[in-house]
Amino acid sequence: MKVGIIADDLTGANATGVRLSENGFHPATYFHYNDLLNDENTDVIVIDTDSRYASERVLDHRVGGSLTKLKHWGADILAKRVDSTLRGNVGKEIDMILETVGEETIGVVVPSFPDSGRITVGGYLIVDSLPLHRTDAANDPITPITSSYVPEIISAQTEHQVGVMTINDMSEDCETFLESFKSVIEKGNKIVVLDAVTNNDIEFIAEALSQYKGHKLVPIDPGPFTSLYAKYRANQIGDDRKIIVTVGSATKVSEKQLVYLIDRLKIKPVIPDITKLATFDHNWHDEVQKCVKKAKKRMEDNEVTVITTNKENLVIIDIKK
User: Fold this and answer.
1) CB 272 within 8 Å of CB 287
2) Rounded distance between C-alpha atoms, residue 163 and residue 192, angstroms
3) Are 16 and 227 in contact (CB under 8 A)?
4) Architecture of the domain whose range is 3-236
5) pTM of the entire predicted model
């Protein structure tokens, strides 16, 4: 899978590339005036358009030209890397990407960057515990930030309607979350801003939206969301591998990890009868065959199959006996 990213400055371009490399991709950063090399090992191209303070004429040339290159390169996902304090031509560049991807496209804005002290609550961007418009971004000499409300900042530049999903609209259940996301879009919103307070919030959003089938999605963020969304999308596209998780450890840590995995993936584990496994007669063989049969059946329906002797409230048997 190929990922193309438009970034308006070099530092942000490289930082996003690094995040994607940590998720298993092989990125390259280009300047907007470079021709793209035919390198089969590169699956992420980040183009620095140096367009944060550019005029519309320059935007058309740099961003428009870069988008054409990424489209010809065959990018499966087009994304927009924005400044973590939303300076620059954010809305205008989003519009250009949405137009390039096509009519049935939704821009997904996740402005949070918890590792850098940026979180979004109620649609408001908080930077190191301060509302965005009370930070140094308010003093930007070219595009001063006068609001902390992300939909308002973007609406001032875009031609499209901007909706928001606040932390109150969020659900830890993937299907419920996607239904809420869909309802925001059905209200006519072409761009959706999502709250996120922690890295786990961003990961959940990325994982859930990677399963969304209704529209093509354009990730828009300072980097964390795009890298995770691309990772989950890449895991789904053209990957019919099956994963078997076998856990024989009886520790409490293993139990907690299993509970997390099973709850997250909504799967039912195969749990052998350990008293039958701890024998030297036909019971052992019969139990193994029974579990193999169950596991094969589960693998028909699930990407991940868990086989474990560790279950909740596990009673440790006397192995010597």
Assistant:
1) yes
2) 5
3) yes
4) 3-Layer(aba) Sandwich (3.40)
5) 0.76
